[in-house]
Design brief:
By secondary structure, the chain is α/β, with parallel strands linked by helices. The strands form 5 sheets. A 7-stranded mixed sheet has the order 1-2-5-6-7-8-9. Strands 10-11-12-13-14 form a 5-stranded mixed sheet, with no helix packed on it. A 5-stranded parallel sheet has the order 16-15-17-20-21, sandwiched between helices. A hairpin with a 2-residue loop joins strand 1 and strand 2. Helix 6 packs antiparallel against helix 7 and helix 10 packs parallel to helix 11. The longest helix is centred in the C-terminal third of the chain and has 19 residues. The two termini are 46 Å apart. 51% of the residues are buried. Bound molecules: MU-OXO-diiron (FEO).
Length: 394
């Protein structure tokens, strides 16, 4: 079965479509454990609402599932919380079949959805902060959450049952049939999801997290992955991520053609461990980009180790620098090291990017060719110094 449904409280049905067939999310981020699209049907005494759709490539599963929950033509409202195609791709067809339904969304959602998702603009209605619609014995309240992840986004609160539908916010990867995160935390990838999708919007995500905290819902129901009913841990994790508060961790990201730079990087990693940091050594040629971002988010110290390639960093490191430029991490200290064959240049580009991001550089070590004993000792000392500076951030 590539989808399942579960009534989470009386009249509220979760449908989860399991995506195990596409190897990448947004056609870029590797999802070896799959991902999922959740949508919800809320049935009250005087109407029914659909909250979010799904990726159009899962239209067969989406309509099979929705029809199993209710007659589509009986929908009163179709709610679009965010018009990225993974949630809006099936909504135009829903609206064709639900001839009496009104499509509700933010002003931005309706504008983007017209262009991106063929919304029928003669049957749409803008909703604003705090506005409510009634389904009889169930009331849906809309809470604006712009830039989490697009300017169009909002949350939807089901007042009587205290369920907050959050679309991308609090989402996770993993194609699991477990409904709630506490049933099987290892089945869901919250950190990779946050790091790759929401991290650039950390300030706006923090506002949405604060609104969630104030509301204190019984259940948080995102449109990807696990639902949450134990909010304390979830909110404190999100508060840490959105404020860029690092852990006692270091990332050593390595680009090395012939293991000379890698040998020195290993020594630096030992130096970081000696002062008490948990160290992830990641080969930039093999790393998944969302893993790189997740390590970067949680690390207090980043050591970039790069050989020189055509006068520039190792190509995997160049890619990592591009990620840094786009995701703009905060609250880190860094160091740079690398081997070169003749003219050098690899570490120079790394330093430029770190400086442009205002990440303090604790030190730099370059050496020609294979690292000598003295180079290895200096690499370990660089690691120790970096670690000591990182500890000051905690
Ligand atoms: Fe899951 Fe930004 O869409």
């Amino acid at each position: 079965m590539s989808w399942f449904k579960r009534e989470i409280v009386d009249g509220v049905t979760l449908v989860r479509i399991l995506n195990t067939k596409l190897p990448r999310f947004e056609n870029f981020w590797p999802i070896p454990n799959g991902t999922s699209y959740n949508f919800y049907v809320v049935e009250g005494s005087e109407g029914a609402a659909l909250i979010d759709g799904a990726d159009y490539r899962f239209s067969r599963e989406f309509f099979e599932a929705l029809e199993s929950v209710m007659k589509i033509e009986d929908l009163t409202y179709v709610i679009t919380q965010h018009t990225e195609p993974d949630h809006s791709g099936t909504l135009a067809e829903v609206m064709r079949r639900a001839e009496k339904a009104i499509l509700l969304g933010t002003k931005q959602a309706l504008s983007i959805g017209e262009a991106l998702a063929d919304f029928p603009m003669d049957r749409v209605r803008e909703v604003r902060e705090g506005e409510e619609v009634s389904l009889g014995d169930k009331t849906l309240r809309f809470i604006m959450s712009p830039m989490v992840h697009w300017p169009d986004t909002m949350l939807t609160y089901l007042v009587e049952d205290s369920i907050l539908f959050t679309c991308d916010l609090f989402g996770s990867h993993g194609a699991s049939d477990r409904v709630f995160y506490d049933e099987s935390p290892d089945s869901f990838e919250l950190l990779d999801y946050y790091a790759s999708i929401l991290m650039p919007y950390h300030a706006m995500a923090a506002k949405a997290v604060a609104k969630t905290k104030e509301l204190s819902p019984k259940v948080v129901a995102p449109s990807h992955g696990a639902l949450h009913r134990e909010l304390e841990g979830l909110l404190s994790m999100y508060e840490r991520w959105t404020s860029w508060k690092p852990l006692k961790k270091a990332l050593v990201v390595v680009g090395s053609q012939y293991e000379n730079t890698a040998r020195a990087a290993d020594e630096a990693a030992d130096g970081l461990r000696e002062v008490g940091l948990e160290v992830a050594v990641v080969d930039s040629a093999e790393a998944d980009p969302d893993d790189l971002l997740a390590h970067t988010l949680e690390a207090a110290a980043i050591l970039v180790a790069t050989s020189t390639h055509n006068g520039h960093p190792f190509l995997g490191i160049t890619f990592y620098l591009d990620l840094l430029k786009e995701y703009r991490p905060k609250n880190k200290v860094a160091a740079v090291l690398g081997s070169f064959g003749w003219g050098g240049g690899g570490t120079r580009d790394v330093k430029k990017v770190l400086e442009s991001l205002s990440i303090p550089i604790v030190g730099e070590l370059t050496f020609k060719g294979k690292p000598k004993e003295g180079d290895l000792a200096r690499a370990k000392e660089l690691g120790r110094r970096l670690g000591e500076e990182a500890l000051k951030l905690l």
